[in-house]
Fold GTP 3',8-cyclase.
Amino acid sequence: MARLAPRTEQPHGSPLVDRYGRIHTDLRISLTDRCNLRCTYCMPAEGLSWLPKPELLTDAELLRLARIAVTRLGIRTLRLTGGEPLLRRGLPGLIAELAALGPELSLTTNGIGLARTAADLKAAGLHRVNVSLDTLRPERYAEITRRDRIHDVFAGLAAARAAGLDPVKINAVPVRGVNDDELVDLVDFAARHGYRMRFIESMPLDAQGAWERDRMITADEILDVLGRRHRLVPVGRHANAPAEEWRIAGTDTVVGVIASVTRPFCGGCDRVRLTADGQLRNCLFATTESDLRALLRDGSDDDRIEAAWRVTVARKGPGHAIGTADFVRPDRPMSAIGG
Ligand SMILES: Nc1nc2c(ncn2[C@@H]2O[C@H](COP(=O)(O)OP(=O)(O)OP(=O)(O)O)[C@@H](O)[C@H]2O)c(=O)[nH]1
Ligand SMILES: C[S@@+](CC[C@H](N)C(=O)[O-])C[C@H]1O[C@@H](n2cnc3c(N)ncnc32)[C@H](O)[C@@H]1O
Ligand code: SF4
Ligand code: SF4
């Protein structure tokens, strides 16, 4: 992790800055903690005890927070995630209202249901989509996700591309002994269909606490395997994005690697997160949250919510401490944070 020197707090009305000088322009919103898959690196076979409905932000509450974020706090990009965000009722309507606020709008999804909804989401104002797909083999997909739905994902990817969502990225989490023999196949599949492939180092955020560092496929291993098949030309990182990119020499194909564990990118972090139950998190690995839902429901005005938001970001730590004695797993698993 890059070393960061603390700075003093910023005055009211300024961008959303933390004490290390990092400006936050990206908001990730979890629309639900529920999911229709049970990926083994994410949650147990029996699922989790989902948040009760009254605890979830309503569309109106969520839109109010998004408006405060965009109009007062300098948020420029919104990502909708979950759980599985396509399970949220009335999603096209919500997207239309978020799009009207003017930010770049993207969605991270497992792709199930995307075949049905991609055109409507695009028409509502969604710009782009990231779809999770860890394998190309139906039986293996059913083992990893515990559901036999790979053909829905293939159809969802094709529908996203046909609808003009651009780019369409594929996220895969390689796990040793599970799907680590498919890295080249996944890249070739994505290139053939016009999708952009990314590999993600698995993180200790699974609900069951079974993450093992040795089962994670590192960025170095991924690049080594791909580099034996293709010549890779470093492209770098777009602004503060987690993915570092490589281009396959002589082609337009770009591959991304999100190396949260072995090559952390916390020094350039520009992200803040809102959970489906209205808790603001200043880091994926935060161990504390700020209860914006309580403020929404006790009649607080926008100034008060803006101030709470700024305090939460100001308190952000330098980054996660995975692999050190200081590391503490957050209570919320990935699926309830929003990834
Ligand atoms: N450590 C860490 N991982 C992140 C962060 N943001 C996203 N990721 C991980 O990156 C993987 C892909 O996330 P996506 O939801 O597709 O978002 P993204 O990669 O930021 O999306 P792009 O804007 O398309 O680059 C997931 O496993 C996320 O948990 C972050 O701020 N910190
Ligand atoms: C939590 S999911 C939520 C959105 C949607 N359900 C999906 O799977 O795309 C967001 C991203 O996090 C990734 N993810 C889930 N558990 C992870 C883990 N333990 N480590 C790294 N990435 C993980 C998924 O592969 C997915 O790309
Ligand atoms: S990674 Fe996404 S699709 Fe898989 S169980 Fe977690 S939330 Fe669901
Ligand atoms: S781990 Fe926290 S600080 Fe690091 S990039 Fe992710 S959200 Fe930002």
Observations:
- The mean pLDDT is 95.
- Residues 40 and 209 are 11 Å apart (CA to CA).
- The radius of gyration is 19 Å.
